[in-house]
Amino acid sequence: MKRLLSTVALAAAFIVAPAHSQSVDQLLNQIKDGSFAKSAEATALESRFAGAGAGKVNLLQQLRTQRAALEATSNALEQQYEANDQALNQVRTERANSLGDLKDLFGAIQQVVGEAQATFDGSIISAQFPDRTDSFDEISKKVSNQSNQLVTAGEIESLWKALFNEMVQQGKVAKFSASVATAAGDREEQQVVRVGTFNLIGDGKFLTYGAGGVADLPKQPDGRFLNQASSLFNATGPVEFAVDPTLGTLLEAAVESPGLRDRVAQGGLVGYIILSVGAFAAIIAIIKIIILFGVSAAVKKQAANPGSPSDKNPLGRVLKAAADTKGNDSEAVELRLSEAIMKETPKLTSWLMFLKIVSVVAPLGGLLGTVLGMITTFQSITLFGAGDPRLMAGGISEALVTTVCGLVVAIPIVLLHTAAASKAKRVEEILEEQSAGMVARKIEG
Q: Do residues 113 and 35 both lie within one domain?
């Protein structure tokens, strides 16, 4: 409403005040002049567009002419390609007809080249002759129609020579220089001994051959085989050496099988405790047996000369105790002899109870370790599943190591305990025999 009132007031002002009519006319004239100017600029712009359109028509005509020329060239090239293709097919047909029986020969050569390539790649003989398969790729291309050239008689002969050399080298022991990848990751030039197609020896160690060349075996077999390898490497004549007829399978199995140290480590803490206690008990038993042998010899010597008792052996001390008894009372003498024998018995039987306890506890400790190992194995199966039988078999194998440790300790300790106890019992029997004889002589006297 306010805007309407303002508009009406403004119109009234124009009507009422004719003095302002001149300004409105001037404004109208300015608007007309501007429209005319704009119309002139628009006319000039239209003229420019018209001229540019004529140029584009010419350009379009030129492009159409070029396209027609290119299409004509393309059609000519297509016709030439078809003609060349027909000529090439005709040449191929003539070549195939000319080859005749040579196609079968080339097929056989291609098969032999493929088999030889696979054999040579995995053969340790290639460590000595690394470039012997360089010509195989070229021969394969020629016989498989990947090349326009035919395989030559010289190339076929080189293939035959390579196969014959492989057969000859299988029965040789050769020494040559080769680049060897060491366990530290470096490559060194070393002297290598090759035993046919079976083993590679370098500096008294077993080597392996693969895609990366010659390398140290990650883990060497036990000392018996290493001694043979060292003897062969430094041999100047015939030596004893065990070859691997499976071309590496048996050697890998021998390397993967754990040694004595690995087996002991698999027993864990329980295994180490059992073996440590067993070693200590074995030392005690051996020392005890040696002492009892010395005591037995001294007692036998004293029994041969009862008239001169010595304090350096049990029988001498028993005889001396009886000689120091006053009077001829047989009961008193018997009591003194029994007392003397009772004093000597603990010395003879010392540590025997310890050996007996170890022989009993060792298998129980092994059983404890096995149970703990089985618990760990079943926990692994629970976490990772039983999809891999090797996981469960390996865990059970490690768990049973402690049982083996317990039996290994218990069996010899039982034998040593039996030997020591028998020897101590024999000395006690000699003491009792001599004591009984002395009492009898006292009674008779």
A: no
